[in-house]
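look at this fold:
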Amino acid sequence: MGRDSPPRQIDESVTDAGFRPIRDRFPFKRNPNTTTTTTRLKSSDRSSLPLTTATTTSTTSSGGVASSRSSYHSNRHRRGLLSTILFPFRGVYLFYIMIILAVFAFAFASLMMLQSSMMISNVVFNNKNNNINNNNNNNNYNDKRGGRSMSVQGLRIGTTLRFVGTSNNVSHGRGGLDRFRSLNQPRIGVRKPRLAIILGNMNKDANSLMSITVMKNLQKIGYLLKIYAVKNGEARSIWEQLSGVSLLGSELHGHIDWSRFEGVIINSLEAKDAISSLMQDPFHTVPIVWIIQEDTLANRLQMYEERGWEHLISDWEKAFSRATVVTFPDYNLPVIYKTTTVLGVLDTGNFFVVPGSPVDVWAAEIFSGSHSKDQVRKNYGLNEDDLVVLVIGSSFFYDELSWDYTVAMHTIGPLLSKFARRKDSEASYKFIFLSGNSSDGYNDALQDIASRLGLMEGSLRHYGLNSDVNNALFMADIVLYGSSQEEQGFPPLIIRSMAMGIPVIAPDFPIMKKYVNDGFHAILFPNHDPDGLMNSFSLLVSSDGKLSKFAQEIASSGKTLAKNLLASECITGYARLLENVLDFPSTVLLPSAVSEIQQKAWDWNFFGDVFEQKDGEMLADIENIERKYSIVYALEKNITKPLGLVNVTENSTEVLVEDMPTEQDWAVLEEIESLEEYERLEKEEIDERSERSTGSWDEIYKNAKKIEKLNFEANERDEGELERTGQPVCIYEIYLGSGTWPFLHHGSLYRGLSLSTNSRRLRSDDVDAVTRLPLLNDTYYRDILCEIGGMFAVANKVDKIHRRPWIGFQSWEATGRQASLSKNAEKILEDRIQNSKGDVIYFWTQLDMDVGSNDRLTFWSMCDILNAGHCRTAFQDAFRNMYNLPSSVEALPPMPEDGGRWSALHSWVMPTPSFLEFVMFSRMFVDSLHALHVKTGQVDTCLLSSSKLESKHCYCRMMELLVNVWAYHSSRRMIYINPISGILEEQHPVEQRKGFIWAKYFNYALLKTMDEDLAEAADDNDNPTEKWLWPLTGEVHWQGIYEREREERYRLKMDKKRKTKEKLLERLRNGYKQKSLGRRSS
């Protein structure tokens, strides 16, 4: 559309969010004065604009002769054109001038003929415009087996709609693997990146074909897939060849640990309910790629606005906004979803297009297998010998449709004049225009044009895109793409036409030349060139009015091309999209490069039986049934069913009707309310006058118990405390967010520990960590500390909530990863605790549970993998800073390489005094680590992370492993309990640690002294750093504080004795004497 032409100084505004008009630029104009005048006309007087624009385009293509002629008129005296040109030239020059005049005369004559046809079409369509617009207003958004159209208000001739995605990370390739590859840093991973695939259904359809092809190639380049499906279907066996399939019922949405996955891919609108669980903490940060290939919702949104169903629109808006990226298979769908609502609320800047889908080829195969071309023609009143030329255009049409037809007539006019007038020919040519909406007005307008141009009766017809598009395509012999708009993507209707084996003629747009070989897959002609179109058409039609052999070869090669057209772009597009959307943690192996994907076709071999065993009509009926039971209509029924707003018409289609209450209904309702109020007052008066007995003591006691049960929360807390009375251990389950509630246990052994007050479970006795440790109210510290922050909260004045000899912790993730204790293991653990002596720690989640057994991975190498390769460096620096060790002294505690297990996910049990000692060590270590981090001056970055999510939880992974270092070097016995069987295995026996452990650094006396020194500094406000973390993580206590508290208690005691003595002396001084009791006065 003239993108390579010299720019004009015209300020073009964007027509809508996400749209960018690109105006055709013409360097030469036939009549500048006329153009200037035309631009000042009102919108109602723009009938001459198409004529001027079309003329300008035609003159431009003639090599600028008109521009030269205009220059002569403006710069010469009024001497006649002949004297001006002929006298200065002689000989050869005169011969050249005569040739130029001849060419100009021929171009001018052709131009006048085209202008006449365009003026006729313009006048005719303007006369029909009012009736047509009324129909368009009621039916602008339609879909019938793939036919899609949309009216765009205010779109002017010469402009082109373009969808411009606004997701910066996707469109510009920032983040993801691009960042890692640019840094060229070494990376060690131990597992593949995980993807959760949520399927709306498992039917054998085009959506499944595309999804299976894409997921299969993602698996090849290194992704690990886990497949969930909302509904079962015939394609389940195919999906099971890729990965295990789990049916995702509504009750199971909240029982999946989505945080285990690097991303979630949803392939349909039907899986919308699964997004609800992904909106809750802590799953709201998991990236979601939502693939939408249906326009069902877009067709209903306008009706929602008209009926005032804001809550339903808001529900869809929340779902769309939760997705990181919403992808579409072509550029038409996102434009429809953006413009069908007044504010375009569904697009929150996350719309993106990954071109490619087999839906058009699938539809063509189904329709071709179940219909006969002769029968379809007969149904539409066409003869077998008719040569049918179907003219198709863009899915978007103007509010004044005559402009689009005018431009089409400019190019097609000579073709119509040559073939549609041939009464002497044996062949009968029928030109069918497929565009916009079906309307009798458009068809009549075409007949008027045919009569004015002298065309044969019935040679021109019109069908709308809201009619059965497949019938219109299938009965055509030649498909001509006649739109003036340059498409952003390959037109879907051309793909479907080629898949039906129909030869295609199209302008040489860049998108067409990119995929189509001219003269092999289709015929391309220069845009706005009637002669080029005439020559292209002649190649496909023989002298007897039939399709030529060359046309049949074009149709065959085009069908082969269409079958897998854009398949490669779709596969690589999603692979590249995931690279730029997902965050890859330090433990993850990076997927292979997109360039290694070799597949160029859809996996039709999985679906060959579909077209062999079933006819097309049956498949079409199945698709219609599936569409009828779509979640879009299900949500509408849930809203309208209580109000009785759903009616069924004669053709079994549901029509939503409004049932607004009348004045009589309001009067009846008011009468009912007044009668109920009168009866209530009368009953209260009767009860007040009647005598009531208080009842027996048993009845009073029962009523009191009922009142106590109404306060369920307080009653539940009391019962929880009673259940735990006498038990030696309590395991605190640490969680954050309501999404983790289904993973928490109930019973006397467990108690919840919420890291956020707002996400605490209702009607439970869970511990509020924020109340016990105000530091966690700061989201920054809560995020960088994670579970260890909850432990600090429990240890802060622990006697107020925990008075048992043993204490345990477990992250909610242990249940999500199926690593929590079974009932049998719980019983074995409780029995073993009662008989245990000495310091021992029991743990049941091992460090390498995600990577399997690997003898080559040591403790510190695994820690490096979890912390972006900097665990040893950071631990060594923090340890040296904590103990103030010189740089010449080794500061990394050695850990054995005996192949034993190590604890993970904070899932362990130990004696309560040992826990307090561990917390004392942990507080000093994390304070030292934080001081080094603050000292770097880059608080927003994290050396221990390789992704944005890991940076948010900077210290969490190292603090998760700290208990292993402390337990090993403090000579605690470490016993692993199998979470399923309950089998106990001692790890790293204490006898084998002699001469290897650093006992002096983990001695309790040393740690207690260091703790008191820090407390004394905090008591004296002698802060070593501006942001000192240690005093905020727990109790601040040392001998000076103890003595001061003791002196305060002694002072209060002495004050009390002094006041008592003064009171006694006051009584003696005033002679106060108590009177005798029981003495009678005489």
In short: Residues 92-138 form the longest helix (47 residues). The mean pLDDT is 77. The first strand starts at residue 142 and ends at 144.
